[in-house]
């Protein structure tokens, strides 16, 4: 059966991206379309979409918020060459040309108000399109209020009760927690549904992610290990008891990788393309390009350790920085690319002037990121927590061995001494010991290193299996 699926999201490639959420929703839309589903995706009409993509206006409609009607416009993407159907909802809350998220409120409007408006607007598009999805698939806190809205709309409209909901948790760290005034704003009251009442009496606050967790028909996380980790503190981030209660409806489904987009044999953004079955010559040539780019000595003996990341605590910067001088005393070179918290950026830049085997570029640069995957020998992902993570999979595909902490999707995708290196405790010393261990193997056991590279690169990260699991969920929900 061909299901009608609507993904409701704050981010989706190629239109709007801050993090991995965008890659995943973009890939889900494409791959589900390939699998024959009627898969459509709706996101806000950010200023940058207006500038860069061809769209067509479908209808103007209003959304009721706080006893006031807000005019919004529904657009459809008509840009060629894309798989799937994309809709955009326009409102001045999203006109900003650069920032997808506002973080701090502007003119009294916060991200919570922006995404509640968006979620309520989503409720209105089915009548306009005369298209009622079987399942609305929500992603992260931004659209987590939708299952609750479906319950409320179901009281008055015969089509809504047939819509099922899936909520995918990409990261529990941001939850959309806010004052209870948001209920009035959203046209709800504390007593509208049992879940809202429960959320309300807890602490007089409203937590949009919690509402979604309480009321979605199914919940998924982006890896099996993360699905277990969120059932207790600290990774449940305060929502562990609610997630535990929904345990039988919670499933971890590992993200795939777009293996066409990330293929070292065809990737035009890297200096030298190479076949994963014979990586040696291509890797060596890419390594020279990388060393030159970062102003490091061109040296084919030293392993190059790469790090491409948002420069924030979650990603392990607080354990890397204090260990830098020890790490750099090993026979290796270290290249770092990313942007993030200014304190960490400063520390890294300072260190780069001190150590000549360290190169740091503070930037968001997809091409250079790919050159790091292609030119490095080891790739570092030492996250404190990582719901899934994408870079470790890309690194393996580009014949760079990931060195990761044993958490979330990292634990599910990298096997110690088989496809990479895995350390357990989130401490600088266990990070350092693992790097030292890897460097020793690089120097003393080249045959083992080559065998690991082959095993790592030949794994199948394609989306097919995960899409089948989602279809299975849709099937059970709509039976
Ligand atoms: C979030 C998570 C990351 C995951 C991504 C896509 O960014 O932090 O681990 O890979 O979402 O699901």
General description of the model:
The chain is 40% helix and 20% strand. The chain is α/β, with parallel strands linked by helices and 479 residues long. It folds into 2 domains: 4-256 and 464-478, 3-Layer(aba) Sandwich (Rossmann fold), CATH 3.40.50; 280-457, 3-Layer(aba) Sandwich (Rossmann fold), CATH 3.40.50.2000. It has a 9-stranded mixed sheet with strand order 3-4-5-2-1-6-7-10-11, sandwiched between helices. Helix 4 (146-154) links the parallel strand 6 and strand 7. Helix 10 (280-293) packs across helix 13, helix 11 (317-327) runs parallel beside helix 12 and helix 11 crosses helix 16. The protein is globular. The mean pLDDT is 96. Bound molecules: alpha-D-glucopyranose. Alpha-D-glucopyranose is lined by residues 19-21, 24, 170-171, 222, 255, 386-390, 409.
What descriptive keywords fit this protein?
479 residues; alpha/beta; Rossmann fold; 2 domains; 9-stranded mixed sheet; binds alpha-D-glucopyranose
Provide the fold topology:
Elements: E1 4-8, H1 20-34, E2 38-44, H2 47-52, E3 55-65, E4 68-77, E5 85-90, H3 111-129, E6 135-139, H4 146-154, E7 164-169, E8 177-179, H5 181-186, H6 194-203, E9 205-207, H7 208-215, E10 218-221, H8 224-229, H9 240-245, E11 250-252, H10 280-293, E12 304-311, H11 317-327, E13 333-340, H12 342-354, E14 358-362, H13 366-375, E15 378-381, H14 391-397, E16 401-405, H15 408-413, E17 421-423, H16 428-444, H17 446-457, H18 464-478
Parallel strand pairs: 1-2, 1-6, 2-5, 6-7, 7-10, 10-11, 12-13, 12-15, 13-14, 15-16, 16-17
Antiparallel strand pairs: 3-4, 4-5, 8-9
The structure holds alpha-D-glucopyranose (GLC).
């Amino acid at each position: 059966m061909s299901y009608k699926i609507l993904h409701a999201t704050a981010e989706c490639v190629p239109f709007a991206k801050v993090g991995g959420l965008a890659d995943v929703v973009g890939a889900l839309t494409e791959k589900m379309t390939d699998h024959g589903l009627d898969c459509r995706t709706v996101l806000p009409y950010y200023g940058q979409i207006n500038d860069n993509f061809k769209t067509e206006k479908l209808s103007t409609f209003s959304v009721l918020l706080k006893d006031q009607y807000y005019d919004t416009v529904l657009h459809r993407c008509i840009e060629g060459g894309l798989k799937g159907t994309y809709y955009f909802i326009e409102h001045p809350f999203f006109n900003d040309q650069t920032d997808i998220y506002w973080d701090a409120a502007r003119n009294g409007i916060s991200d919570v108000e922006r995404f509640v408006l968006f979620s309520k607007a989503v409720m209105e598009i089915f009548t306009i399109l005369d298209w009622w999805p079987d399942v609305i698939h929500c992603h992260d806190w931004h659209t987590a209020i939708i299952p609750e809205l479906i319950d409320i709309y179901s009281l008055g409209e015969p089509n809504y009760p047939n819509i099922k909901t899936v909520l995918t948790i990409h990261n529990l760290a941001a939850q959309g927690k806010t004052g209870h005034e948001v209920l009035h704003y959203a046209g709800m009251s504390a007593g509208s549904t049992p879940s809202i009442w429960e959320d309300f009496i807890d602490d007089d606050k409203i937590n949009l992610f919690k509402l979604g967790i309480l009321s979605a028909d199914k919940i998924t996380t982006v890896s099996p290990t993360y699905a277990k980790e969120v059932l207790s503190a600290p990774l449940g981030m305060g929502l562990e008891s609610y997630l535990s209660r929904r345990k039988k409806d919670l499933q971890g489904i590992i993200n795939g990788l777009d293996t066409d987009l990330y293929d070292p044999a065809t990737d035009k953004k890297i200096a030298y393309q190479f076949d994963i079955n014979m990586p040696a010559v291509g890797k060596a040539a890419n390594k020279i390009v990388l060393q030159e780019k970062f102003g490091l000595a061109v040296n084919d003996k030293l392993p190059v350790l790469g790090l491409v990341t948002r420069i924030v605590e979650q990603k392990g910067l607080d354990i890397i920085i204090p260990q830098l001088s020890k790490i750099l005393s090993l026979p290796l070179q270290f290249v770092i690319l990313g942007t993030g918290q200014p304190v960490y950026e400063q520390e890294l830049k300072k260190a780069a002037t001190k150590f000549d085997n360290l190169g740091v570029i503070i930037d968001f640069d997809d091409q250079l990121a790919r050159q790091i995957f292609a030119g490095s020998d080891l790739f570092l992902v030492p996250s404190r927590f990582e719901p899934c993570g994408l870079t470790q999979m890309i690194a393996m595909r580009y014949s760079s061995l990931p060195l990761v902490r044993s958490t979330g999707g990292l634990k599910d995708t990298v096997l110690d001494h088989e496809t990479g290196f895995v350390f357990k405790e989130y401490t600088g010393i266990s990070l350092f010991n693992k790097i030292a261990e890897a460097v020793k193997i690089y120097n003393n056991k080249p045959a083992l290193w080559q065998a690991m590279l082959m095993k790592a690169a030949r794994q199948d990260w394609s989306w097919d299996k995960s899409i089948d699991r989602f279809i299975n969920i849709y099937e059970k929900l709509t039976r």
